[in-house]
Design brief:
about 375 residues, alpha/beta, Rossmann fold, 2 domains, 4-stranded parallel sheet, 13 helices
Length: about 375
């Protein structure tokens, strides 16, 4: 597979190379926000206000579904009056009990690990909310436990339905008073995603298309992606995962200030070295820094110093800034752009962004 940037402005290739419709799915993000909000309200997640506030919120999910829990924790922020934990496992931690709220998220409603954790939550007497496809095993677990179930009509891969799975969590958190969010906020988020979809549309040429531009910067590099706040850290992790699954491309994720205590050492390593006399450029390190308006001043200083350090060593740097006033708006502004960029990166390499054959084969081998 070779990187051919001219593919990004070849409309025929963008259509033929994306038979699963990942670009179409990314463009539907705004619609997902609106649909998911209505689904959450109709499912009655506001019933949570009649209950005692839980000791902790535990979101269980895998892969693209689990990211919804990370977004929830980032949006609620450090000021949340209780722990908000995302669990990617079959089992609940020993401390989870009857005073806790478990939210099980599975796009298909059939994820083995999520079903197992949801059933364990019921046995322990936890409050339960579940989100997933209608008429699925997960819905059966929720209905049997008289729990709230939010059915979503997802199509394609779970990672392409992030907002369908995430918005019900935010609505639930708002009903518990963990975050300020109303219908106006969800409409602003949808507007942000619509604006990104317009600017990153396939017919927009590379030199004015931020999604294609980011894809070209990432191509032929080893991206080291750092977030500088809880919001940008989740967006950075999402970018790394989307690079893996959409473009089948490696990526390294880190978060400041921790990354400055280990990953920064790679600036002096073999992947950062550049041979200007080589016939062909090798894949070298690229720092992708995601910045936020709500950074700890100490982290901001470390971020600025790190960027200068990378520049001094000839390590190329890409900086992306979150936009918006509410944390949910800011995380959407980054995720929307990065979802387009990873899809364009795949298409620039001639890779179909939708299927994940290695994951499918792994699941098949495990089930044998």
């Amino acid at each position: 597979m070779t990187w051919e940037p001219e593919r990004l402005d070849d409309q025929h290739h963008l259509t033929e190379g994306d038979p699963g419709g990942m670009l179409v799915a990314v463009a539907a993000s705004a619609a997902q926000v609106r649909i998911a909000y209505r689904a959450a309200v109709e499912a009655g997640v506001d019933r949570l206000t009649s209950r005692v506030r839980p000791r902790a919120v535990v979101v269980v999910g895998m892969g693209g579904s689990a990211i919804a829990g990370d977004v929830l924790a980032a949006v609620c922020g450090n000021g949340a009056p209780m722990p908000i934990v995302t669990l990617r496992s079959h089992q609940l931690p020993g401390w989870v009990g009857a005073t806790d709220l478990v939210i099980a998220v599975s796009c298909s409603g059939r994820t083995e690990e999520t079903q197992s954790a949801a059933m364990e939550a019921v046995r322990r007497g936890c409050s339960l909310i579940a989100i997933g496809s209608a008429d699925s095993p997960l819905e059966a677990i929720a209905r049997q436990a008289s729990a709230v179930y939010v059915p979503v009509q997802a199509t394609g891969q779970a990672r392409a339905n992030l907002w369908l799975l995430t918005i019900p969590l935010i609505v639930s958190a708002a009903s518990l008073g963990l975050v300020k969010a109303d219908e106006e906020l969800y409409e602003r988020v949808a507007g942000t995603l619509e604006d990104i979809a317009h600017r990153c549309r396939p017919s927009s040429e590379s030199f004015v298309n931020p999604g294609k531009t980011l894809a070209m910067e990432l191509a032929e590099s080893v991206p080291m992606i750092w977030g500088s706040s809880s919001v940008t850290a989740v967006a950075g992790y999402r970018l790394a995962c989307q690079l893996n699954t959409n473009a089948k491309y490696p990526a390294i994720f880190g978060e400041l200030p921790e990354a400055g205590h280990n990953q920064v050492a790679a600036f002096d390593g073999p992947m950062a070295a550049r041979d200007i006399f080589a016939d062909a450029a090798g894949r070298t390190l690229r720092l992708v820094m995601l910045r936020d308006v709500e950074e700890d001043p100490r982290v901001s200083r470390r971020r600025e110093t790190t960027v200068r350090l990378a520049n001094d060593r000839g390590v190329p740097v890409t900086e992306l800034s979150a936009e918006g006033t509410h944390p949910l708006e800011r995380i959407a502004s980054l995720i929307g752009l990065c979802d387009y960029a990873t899809t364009y990166l795949a298409l620039g390499y001639g890779v179909d962004p939708t299927p994940v054959p290695a994951i499918t084969e792994l699941k098949a081998r495990i089930s044998q």
